Amino acid sequence: MLGIREFARTTDAERFRRDALALTARLFRAQRAPRHRFRSGEVDRAELILKSIPLQKRFFRLREQHLDSGDNEVRVLATAMFQHCDRLFAFLEYPGVEPTNNSAERALRHAVIWRRGSFGNQSANGEEATARLLTAARTCVMQRRNALEFLCDSVSRHRAGQPALSLLQR
């Protein structure tokens, strides 16, 4: 949502930007406010969802108001919100889903730093291999597994013609 600041050149875009960011801020405040009470069991998920329903309806109205906007970028963003509305509120409906992508960005940070320092790859195969290695290593870190041990075992199993190890949550 913050990226819409860059293209808010028309009145329609500015209005859409302002309203979308205000609703986003209110939704995150509603989600964050009871977090300490939610952990202690004082607030249940149903209460949190009920508090968010009026804000979700406002998002839907905002989206519908701008589907036919004269500003192409506003129309594209409103259409994307329309097509992906089920994903916008997944953090309310599914326990454990974060409302932001901060954890994903933190997970990618080391890969981005490595890529900048090494000047990337020289081929599509190199890019694919790097992506797979970094994904496996980061997943092992998140699962508190030894990444080097996992990668060594994976290579050994591959060479021996054995089934691959799984990175799925154990």
Question: Mind explaining what this structure looks like?
Answer:
This protein is mainly α and 170 residues long. It has two domains: 92 residues; 58 residues, no CATH class. Helices cover 69% and strands 0% of the residues.
Question: How would you summarize this macromolecular structure in one to three sentences?
Answer:
It is built from nine helices and no strands.
Topology record:
Elements: H1 11-32, H2 35-40, H3 45-65, H4 72-83, H5 85-88, H6 90-93, H7 102-118, H8 124-142, H9 147-159
User: Could you tell me how far the N terminus lies from the C terminus, measured between alpha carbons in angstroms?
Assistant: 35 Å
Q: Beta-strand percentage?
A: under 5%
Helix content: 55-70%
Radius of gyration over C-alpha positions, nearest whole angstrom = 22 Å
Number of strands: 0
Q: What is the total number of structural domains? A: 2
Write the H/E string, N to C.
HHHHHHHHH
Shape: elongated
Poorly predicted regions are: none
Can you summarize the main beta sheet? none
* Count of runs of 4 or more consecutive helical residues: 9
Quote the average pLDDT. 79
Structural class: mainly alpha
